[in-house]
UniProtKB/TrEMBL annotation:
Domain of life: Bacteria
Positions that bind [4Fe-4S] cluster: C273, C276, C308, E315
Keyword field: 4Fe-4S, Iron, Iron-sulfur, Isoprene biosynthesis, Metal-binding, Oxidoreductase
Class of enzymatic activity (EC top level): oxidoreductase
SUPFAM superfamilies: FMN-linked oxidoreductases (SSF51395), Nitrite and sulphite reductase 4Fe-4S domain-like (SSF56014)
Domain IspG TIM-barrel, chain residue ranges per copy: 16-254
Pathway this chain belongs to: Isoprenoid biosynthesis; isopentenyl diphosphate biosynthesis via DXP pathway; isopentenyl diphosphate from 1-deoxy-D-xylulose 5-phosphate: step 5/6
Protein name per its UniProtKB record: 4-hydroxy-3-methylbut-2-en-1-yl diphosphate synthase (flavodoxin)
Cofactor section: [4Fe-4S] cluster
Length: 375
C-alpha cells in the first residue's frame, strides 16, 4: 500500500555526506528530523526528560543550548544518556564550543565568523577534529553581519548566501569539511530563495528551516509551504520545524511533512475526510483519538477513516486498513483494500487500534525474517 509511482518521485540534490555522531546526513542518507530542547541545559534531568519525549517521537538529532560553563558541565551528562546525537548550540563564546566538543557533542552549531580571531576559529576546528564533531553553520536573516546589511541594505538572498560562503571559507581554510549549512529566515520567500541559491553554489548538506515560524498551526502551515517547496525540489538533507510548541510536536510535524512527500515513512499515515452531514460517526473526534493512541507505532502503514460510503471505499482500497461509516451504527472495515467485516460504533475505536497494532507487529516480524534470510 506504499507503492511509489513515477510521478511521485523526487530527485534529491546531490551533495557530499557528513556524519553527525553515528547518523549520516546528506548523500543518499534519509532526510533527518531535528528539534531543540527548551529546558535550562544546566538542569540535566529536565533536559533529558525532554530529549526522551523527542526520541520517542522519532527525532534523529537534537540540539541543546550551551550558553554558560554550567551548561557545558551538564552537557556531558546529557550526551552520555541520550540515544541520539546531540548538537551543541554555540553563539559567541568559543570556549563553550571547546567544552562541548570535549563533552561529547556530535556537532557544533556555530558561525565561525562570530567567535573572534582566526586563532579562535583554529582552536574550535582542532577541538572538532579531535572529537569527531561536525559543524553546522547557521546563518539567520535576523542576525546578519553589519557589513552585509550595509552592502545590501536589508536581508536578502544574496546577503544570506554571502554570509554562508564567508563562514564556509573560514572552515575550509583550516582544512575542515565536515559541515552543513542553514540560511534561515522567517520570511518564506526570502528563505526559499536563499536556499535555492545556496544549493546551486555548494556541495555540502543543507539544514532546512523557516525560523520563528510561529505557533503549532500557523508555524506548521508556514514551514510546510517553505520547506515543502524546497523538499519537493530535492533540496534539503536535514530539517527542523521551528514552532512555538513543545519540541516533540516539531518532530511530529517534520515527519508528517516528509511522509506527505514520500521522503520518509514512519508510523501511521492517516487519510481522513473533513466530515459532513453524511458521516456515520464523529470523524473529527475519532481521528483525534486514533492519532493520539497510535503515536507509539513506528512501523510505516496507512489508515483511512471516512465518514460515509461516497469516497470511503475508494480511499480504503489504497490503505492497509480502512474504516467507512455506515448506517445504524454499523461500519465497514477494510483490510489491504478489501472489505472484510463490520464493527459497531461502541467498539470501533478499540477495534481499529487493535488492528493497527496487529498489522504493525506483523510487518515488523516480516521485516525481521527478511533481514535474517538476507544474512
Amino acid at each position: 500500500m506504499n507503492e511509489i509511482r513515477p510521478w511521485r518521485t523526487i530527485e534529491r540534490r546531490k551533495c557530499r555526506q557528513i556524519m553527525v555522531g553515528d547518523t549520516p546526513v546528506g548523500g543518499d542518507a534519509p532526510i533527518t528530523v531535528q528539534t531543540m530542547t527548551n529546558t535550562p541545559t544546566e538542569d540535566a534531568v529536565a533536559t533529558l526528560d525532554q530529549i526522551r519525549r523527542c526520541e520517542d517521537a522519532g527525532a534523529d538529532i537534537i540540539r541543546v543550548s550551551c550558553p554558560t560553563k554550567e551548561a557545558t558541565d551538564a552537557f556531558g551528562k546529557i550526551t552520555k544518556a541520550a540515544r541520539i546525537p546531540i548538537v551543541a548550540d554555540i553563539h559567541f563564546h568559543y570556549k563553550r564550543a571547546l567544552e562541548a566538543a570535549d563533552a561529547g557533542a556530535a556537532c557544533l552549531r556555530i558561525n565561525p565568523g562570530n567567535i573572534g580571531s582566526n586563532e579562535r576559529v583554529a582552536e574550535v576546528v582542532r577541538a572538532a577534529k579531535a572529537n569527531g564533531c561536525a559543524i553546522r553553520i547557521g546563518v539567520n536573516a535576523g542576525s546578519l553581519e553589519k557589513h552585509l546589511l550595509e552592502k545590501y541594505g536589508e536581508p536578502c538572498p544574496e546577503a544570506l548566501v554571502e554570509s554562508a560562503l564567508d563562514h564556509i571559507k573560514l572552515l575550509q581554510d583550516h582544512d575542515f569539511h565536515e559541515f552543513k549549512v542553514a540560511v534561515k529566515a522567517s520570511d518564506v520567500f526570502l528563505a526559499v530563495a536563499a536556499y535555492q541559491q545556496l544549493a546551486d553554489t555548494v556541495d555540502c548538506p543543507l539544514h532546512l528551516g523557516i525560523t520563528e515560524a510561529g505557533g503549532l498551526i500557523g508555524g506548521t502551515v508556514k514551514s510546510s509551504i517553505g520547506m515543502g517547496n524546497l523538499l519537493w525540489a530535492g533540496i534539503g538533507d536535514t530539517i527542523r520545524v521551528s514552532l512555538s510548541a513543545e519540541p516533540e510536536e516539531e518532530v511530529r510535524v517534520g515527519f508528517e511533512m516528509l511522509k506527505a512527500l514520500g521522503l520518509r515513512t514512519r508510523g501511521v499515515r492517516v487519510v481522513s475526510c473533513p466530515s459532513c452531514a453524511r458521516q456515520g460517526f464523529d470523524v473529527i473526534r475519532t481521528v483525534q483519538a486514533l492519532e493520539e493512541r497510535l503515536q507509539h507505532i513506528k512501523t510505516p502503514l496507512s489508515l483511512s477513516v471516512l465518514g460515509c460510503v461516497v469516497n470511503g471505499p475508494g480511499e480504503a482500497r489504497e490503505t492497509d486498513i480502512g474504516l467507512t461509516g455506515g448506517g445504524n451504527g454499523k461500519h465497514m472495515v477494510y483490510l489491504s483494500g478489501v472489505t472484510d467485516h463490520t464493527v459497531q460504533s461502541a467498539d470501533m475505536l478499540d477495534h481499529i487500534v487493535d488492528l493497527v497494532e496487529a498489522k504493525a507487529a506483523a510487518l515488523e516480524a516480516e521485516a525481521e525474517q527478511q533481514a535474517v534470510a538476507a544474512e
